[in-house]
Design brief:
256 residues; alpha/beta; Rossmann fold; globular
Length: 256
């Protein structure tokens, strides 16, 4: 199995909540020893990129900040390049909002051109209502990712997807969604690694984001059954990964 680079999901793939998935650090070490570039891709926009980098370090991964691409970073890059100068109201946690502002986006509290929706664990009625009123006045809805739930150590928490659908229905709008399965995120990671996206492989636990993105970008995919997707889910789906493994611990033996 020869790939020019690995795109690797995080939640449910190398860890679940605060628990490391066995063999995950050895998997990354095997990529580094072979000189194979890799980028972690996470749709989870509840924290800044630095938070996830520090989490990986504490779990024992040998990585740098450049090895991490979050849906929030991807959305920031999209807004700066495709919506330059637009005023943005961020529905997000304090560190995520600061990450957006520090990148040069014009973050405002009133009269935005864009409602920038993230996975906000600090969300309040006031934030929801302010976003609703801005959207009804014509602001564009841009969301970092479409996930309905986020895996934890024991089960799942509600994620951003239901909020996207609520705003779309209430405000008669359609969200622009940047994170997986949008192939833009994979292409950003491939560009950073300096490789052709079609020579890479996407590794993840979710059919409708990780594996679907790989399909849309015409790359190989590896579904791991350590997270959200079960074999029953796979059999019932029309999405077909290139490989199916129990976990990332099974990947190193495929590299030789």
């Amino acid at each position: 199995m020869k790939y020019t680079g690995f795109m690797i999901d995080m939640d449910g793939t190398v860890y679940k909540g605060g628990d490391l998935i066995p063999g995950a650090t050895d998997f990354i070490s095997s990529l580094k020893s072979r000189g194979i570039p890799f980028v972690f891709l996470t749709n989870n926009s509840s924290h800044s990129r630095d938070y996830y980098y520090q989490k990986l370090i504490k779990m024992g991964f040998d990585v740098t900040l450049d090895n991490v691409l979050t849906s929030n970073i991807a959305t920031i890059r999209f807004v700066l390049s495709e919506r330059p100068g637009k005023k943005v109201y961020v529905v997000g946690s304090p560190d995520v909002t600061e990450e957006v502002r520090s990148a040069g986006v014009d973050v405002v509290d009133e009269d935005p051109d864009i409602v920038y929706l993230t996975f906000d664990r600090t969300i309040t009625y006031e934030k929801i209502n302010k976003a609703y009123k801005a959207l009804c006045k014509g602001a564009e809805l841009i969301a970092t990712h479409p996930d309905d739930v986020c895996p934890t150590e024991t089960d799942y928490d509600i994620d951003i997807g239901p909020f996207i659908r609520m705003f779309e229905q209430m405000c008669q709008t359609t969200a622009t969604i940047i994170g997986k399965p949008n192939r833009l995120m994979l292409e950003m990671a491939a560009l950073h690694m300096g490789v052709d996206p079609k020579g890479t492989v996407m590794v993840g636990d979710r059919l409708y984001t990780d594996i679907r993105m790989g399909e849309m970008a015409e790359t190989a995919t590896i579904l791991v059954l350590s997270g959200e997707t079960s074999r029953a889910d796979l059999e019932a789906s029309d999405i077909r990964p290139t490989h199916v493994l129990d976990s990332v611990a099974d990947i190193p033996k495929m590299l030789d």
